[in-house]
Design goal:
single chain; phosphoprotein; Tscrpt_reg_LuxR_C; DNA binding; DNA-binding; 10 helices; six-stranded parallel β-sheet; elongated; transcription regulation
Length: 212
């Protein structure tokens, strides 16, 4: 099996150095590049096409939220693990909704971060416990999605790609009003509060096939 190739995007050199040193000690992980800001990180990711992009959020020139949104628009198959110190909803929701596969805190242990990198590399969702609580994921109701219609599942799949309502309408050749109705029905049936929680639900229940 080939090593999991990782790039690190963080404006703190010591954070990158510490993480790189730890990861390169692993038998199956290799750090192949580093960047100190979002724009530099996007360019590096598009050039190297790593298995996992480890992304900080607060950086100069372009922050991690914008970099995540931009990278996933240009390379939909990118697997991004956010690694940050922030638990703010306004940071968590945009990157998860855009398609980031993981959200971990820098206070997590090295072993937890390594485990998350491996999960993300496999296309699985890796959400730190405190973050998971904030998005209120409903493990206790694993079959809520059985109530979704085929069209609602189509809409949910496009939500996981970070598309807005107008783009979904264009993709499915339906009206904007119909999309809004489908989204409202999805949230109600999955018993979630917003689109981001619906996206997390979809990934957690393997409702979305991974892109090539």
């Amino acid at each position: 099996m080939e090593n999991i190739k990782v790039i690190l995007i963080d404006d703190h050199e010591m954070v990158r150095l510490g993480l790189k040193s730890f990861l390169n000690l692993q038998a199956d992980v290799e750090v192949v590049g580093e960047a100190s800001n979002g724009q530099e990180g996007i360019d590096l990711a598009l050039t190297l096409k790593p298995d996992v992009v480890v992304m900080d959020l607060v950086m100069p020139e372009m922050d991690g939220v914008e970099a995540t949104l931009t990278l996933l628009k240009q390379w939909k198959a990118a697997k991004i693990l956010v690694l940050t110190s922030y638990l703010d909803n306004e940071k968590i929701y945009p990157v998860i909704e855009a398609g980031a596969k993981g959200y971990m805190l820098k206070t997590s242990s090295a072993a937890e971060i390594l485990h998350s990198i491996k999960k993300v590399a496999q296309g699985e969702l890796a959400i730190e416990t405190e973050v998971d609580k904030k998005i209120k994921y409903h493990d206790q109701h694993p079959d809520l999605h059985d109530e979704l219609t085929a069209r609602e599942r189509d809409v949910l799949k496009l939500l996981t790609k970070g598309y807005d309502n107008q783009t979904i309408a264009d993709q499915l050749y339906i009206s904007l009003k119909t999309v809004k109705t489908h989204v409202s029905n999805i949230l109600a049936k999955l018993e979630v509060e917003d689109r981001t929680q619906a996206v997390v639900y979809a990934f957690r229940h393997n409702l979305v096939a991974q892109d090539d």
